[in-house]
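Board work, copied verbatim: glucose-1-phosphate adenylyltransferase
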Amino acid sequence: MAITVDGRLSLSYAAQLRGATGLVVTNRGFLKFSNGDFMGQKLKLKLKPSQFQQKGDKCSNRTHIYSSLTADVATESKVAIGGSYRLIDVPMSNCINSGINKVYILTQFNSQSLNRHIARAYSSSNGVTFGDGFVEVLAATQTSGVEGKNWFLGTADAVRQFHWLFEDPRSKDIEDVVILSGDHLYRMDYMDFVKSHRHSGADITLSCLPMDDTRASDFGLMKIDNNGRIISFSEKPKGKDLKAMQVDTTVLGLSPDEAREKPYIASMGVYVFKKEILLNLLRWRFPTANDFGSEVIPASAAEFYMKAYLFNDYWEDIGTIRSFFEANLALTEHPPRFSFYDAAKPMYTSRRNLPPTKIENSKIVDSIISRGSFLTGSFIEHSVVGIRSRISSNVHLKDTVMLGADFYETDAEIAELLADGRVPAGIRENTKIKDCIIDKNARIGKNVVIANSEGIQEADRSSEGFYIRSGVTIILKNYVIKDDLAI
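↓ predict structure ↓
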């Protein structure tokens, strides 16, 4: 079972182990996929036995269901990534690829777009079947009383409000709950994570990344002892406080050379709790704590047995405009640090049934062009172009993330808009755009220049259809940038 709050929180019951067979099965059978067309080839997939259960493991004779939960403190989960995906697709796909087939999605307010995406992406009509599992959306509701006047106040608060899910008779065998973040880009097998947690006997296990000096101060860091037990936390330390957080990362499996290069470990916001420990923390020990990362986890280090689990692979936090921008453009690298093109562990999303992109007399360099787009006489350089995009002649996009459109305009509608002096969806002729994010359904006129040539870092001109954050220009959703404007 999985639960997601506004794309921010996802709770999942994973695989049930059956005796000493050494196979991980999803409750009553293997997770299956229909013969959908993924990555250009017909795949006939059956979930493989996970390394989580191997013959001879200490837990091989235990028949319990595991539970995981995804949390994200931002609204980025509704945002596109890589042209065709949404960030919520990352934890959802990781759950599916890890053998999790029961998913609850807890939505906050203003969640219509997310709900629609989930309904379209994770249903049998999209080529994914969950056996006896399901994906079900549960909306946040305000109840009577003082506490009921608020929506979810944070990830821990959301789980607390749905603690009854753990006490349902169907959930009596759950032993462990995994907390996952929904605004990160990575690919991970959660069963390996749970296996490490169970073998260590820890109350709580945190997944962590090795860090060097250049980035360590941007994250919450952990101090561990020689056995990998977490003994303290420090949130974004600087100077002497940063140096004090250095640890011997060979304890977690890094080589001596890697350990010297990366002497810090940063929390990923991915945790495993023993179920009873989680319930105790949320209901009795910290009944007013709203957030896991800043409140519950740091306060638990002194009282509970907490272990660090090394994840030494690509991971990116998409929590800011700049990180969202850079993570998208990094997908155009050769080779990219993260790839959506993995047929064995695919990333799932809505099947939109869009036609191929039509490209006429255009030049494309180091870019991603999503389906259903029209490119005419344009130059696309180191950019990501989303679905249903229209780019006219003599347009130059460089270092740009264009999110595309939710709809098509017919030739007749375009002609009518032009006749009335209005701007159709997409980018019109002779426009030059650099270092920019173009949100959905934006309309950019002719002879426009968007380059932030003065290097402004922060500006709010939303009344004109754009603003600037961390030096990146953002064209707002559904807004019109008129002809001949220079930004």
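The first strand starts at residue 3 and ends at 5.
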